[in-house]
Amino acid sequence: MIEMDHPATHRSKKEALSQLEIFLENLFLLPVDFSVDSLEEKLTGASFFQPNKKTVYILEGVLMCLGQEDIEKLFCSLKSMSDNFRLVFTFLRLDGEGRYSHGRLFRHVS
Fold first, then answer.
1. What is the CA radius of gyration of the chain?
2. Residue 103 pLDDT level (bands cut at 50, 70, 90)
3. Distances from the Cα of 28 to the Cαs of 23, 25, 41, 57, 59, in angstroms?
4. How confident is the model at residue 67 (pLDDT cuts 50, 70, 90)?
5. Taking all residues of the chain, what is their mean pLDDT, rounded to a whole number?
């Protein structure tokens, strides 16, 4: 599993795992700032990334931090690396009153 997150968040996660003495052989932490870094360059430069494998990308809490142009770049990067993937993501939308909403599904769960 490759965990990609903002460099600041990445440092916190790495430190927490180290303090808890959790070392997983199949977990790779890769710092990425999607508003600055190229996802394609970051992943293809990582020795543990295997672009020919079936992949599930989970963008949890990512898209709401990016502008439209960065989101489009991110989706294009995913598509250019492989056709053999699935994408799962969360997003916020504006409700009828101009406030951001996470939709009905999460309202029922929370």
1. 16
2. low
3. 10, 8, 16, 14, 16
4. confident
5. 83
103: its two tokens: 């939709």
Long-range contacts of 90-94 (CB under 8 A, 24+ apart): 90/59, 90/60, 90/61, 90/63, 90/64, 91/63, 91/64, 92/64
How do the domains of the chain map onto residue ranges?
Answer: 2-109
Amino acid of residue 100: Y
Overall average pLDDT of the 82-100 stretch:
80
User: Would the pTM of this model clear 0.85, i.e. be above it?
Assistant: no
Cα 42 from Cα 68, distance rounded (Å): 20
Task: Spell out the alpha helix ranges (H) of the chain.
Answer: 7-19, 39-44, 68-81, 104-109
